[in-house]
Design goal:
The protein has about 160 residues and is α+β, with helices and mostly antiparallel strands. Helices cover about 50% and strands about 20% of the residues. Among the domains are: about 40 residues; about 60 residues, SH3 type barrels (Roll). The protein contains four helices and five strands, in the order αβββββααα. Strand 3 and strand 4 form a beta hairpin.
C-alpha cells in the first residue's frame, strides 16, 4: 500500500503545479480582458488581435465598431480587441514634419532641368559599343531541333 499512496501524492503534486502554472494565470488573464471590454467607450484608441489600430465609434453588446481611417468603419467582436492604447506625442510630431515637407514641394519644374534629364535618359537607353561587341561574339543557338519527336503509343485493340 505504500507504493499506491506515493503515486497519489505525486499525482496531487502535479495537479497543484498545473493549477498554479496554467489554470490560475489563464483565469486572471480572462478576467483582465473582460474588465477591459467593459471599460471600452466611444473614442478609445484600440488595437485588435490582428494588429489593426482604430478608434471606437460605436459599441454593441458583443461587437465594437472601429474607425480605422476617415469615413472607414469596421465592425469587430469585442473579444477581438487586444488592448486599449494611447496616441503618443511622437506620432503628432511626425505628422507635423510631413505637413512641413508637403509645403516645400515645388509645383512647376525648371524647363532646363527637365531637358537635361531627358538627354541623360536617351543616352542611357542607347546600347554601348561593348554591348554590341558582346552580342557579335556570342554563339547563336538554333532553337529548332533536328530530332524527330517520338510517336504516341497506340491503344490496344480489343
Amino acid at each position: 500500500m505504500g507504493g499506491g499512496a506515493g503515486i497519489i501524492v505525486w499525482i496531487l503534486f502535479f495537479v497543484v503545479i498545473f493549477y498554479f502554472l496554467a489554470i490560475r494565470p489563464q483565469r486572471r488573464q480572462k478576467q483582465a480582458h473582460a474588465s477591459m471590454e467593459r471599460m471600452l467607450k466611444k473614442g478609445d484608441e484600440v488595437v485588435t488581435i490582428g494588429g489593426l489600430f482604430g478608434t471606437v465609434s460605436r459599441i454593441g453588446d458583443e461587437w465594437v465598431e472601429l474607425e480605422i481611417a476617415k469615413r472607414t468603419k469596421v465592425r469587430f467582436m469585442k473579444r477581438a480587441i487586444s488592448s486599449i492604447t494611447e496616441i503618443s506625442e511622437d506620432d503628432d510630431e511626425d505628422d507635423e514634419l510631413i505637413e512641413a515637407a508637403d509645403e516645400d514641394v515645388v509645383d512647376v519644374a525648371d524647363e532646363d532641368v527637365v531637358d537635361e534629364a531627358d538627354e541623360d535618359w536617351v543616352e542611357e537607353d542607347e546600347p554601348t559599343e561593348d554591348v554590341e561587341e558582346d552580342v557579335a561574339d556570342a554563339d547563336v543557338v538554333d532553337d529548332e531541333t533536328t530530332e524527330e519527336e517520338p510517336a504516341a503509343p497506340e491503344a490496344p485493340k480489343a
